[in-house]
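Task 17 of the worksheet. Students: predict the tertiary structure of the chain below and write it out as structure tokens. Keep your answer in the requested format; marks are given for formatting as well as content.
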Amino acid sequence: MGILDDKVAIITGSTKGIGKAIAHQFVREGAKVVITSSSYANVQAALSEFPPDSVYGHVCNVVSTRDMEQLIVAATERFGRVDCFINNAGISDPFRSITESDPDEWCNVIDTNLKGTYNGCRAAISYFLKEKRKGKIINMAGSGTDRGSNTPWISAYGSTKAAIARFTFAVAEEYRHTGISVMLLHPGLVRTGMVSADNPTPELSRQLAAFNTILDIFAQPPLVAAQLAVQLASGWSDSKTGVYLSALNGRRKKMLLLSYPFRKMLNRIDRRTY
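Model answer:
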């Protein structure tokens, strides 16, 4: 028995990294999960890692309003309903100053992260209202969300995460009277392809030593975020909205910082890419 038994969740961008870790944790807790990607090959590869009766794979582009609406339809046709929608899909801009940035790349980050979250929320809330369900929506925070969390060299990514926070709390207030929970999750710093130092830009090459030290100190496995996602999707959040949980809150940051010298000395720093 799991705390998400009989729940159905959609997780966008869930064939890799944090999204896939959340999907695995949801399945362990008894949920049925719809995993998604814009890549058919990535969906098929990820499906092989799950029990076939617990997951359904769907190819979609979060930037497309129609794709998000069709995702809800496909999920309900496969599992009968949707209880939780997680807007996890996201990308980052290359490590560059604004004058060195590519306008198309920069705007693509805005579209994927911010417009994708809007499209997911719009489709999920429309469904929950139509079906009179007290569903749950989890949006993803990140660097740029919290006060003082500046994001030089990845200005598009940081801008989206600041905007997603404001958007989440605004939507939570708009639908407070409906029983729909709209919540925010900060997954912390996780070694995924998004923060990889492979093929670094010239600017990242100049700051590579500091970049790697920050990863060594603060990076955590995606399981930490996945467990918080389970908490948000569970009965714990019933009748709550506008909730914000962080895998890298002040207490966690302090613990990671104080333990860093000992983890380094004992060679217990996890440098795997998830």
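Marker's comment: Residues 103-131 form the longest helix (29 residues). The chain has a mean pLDDT of 96.
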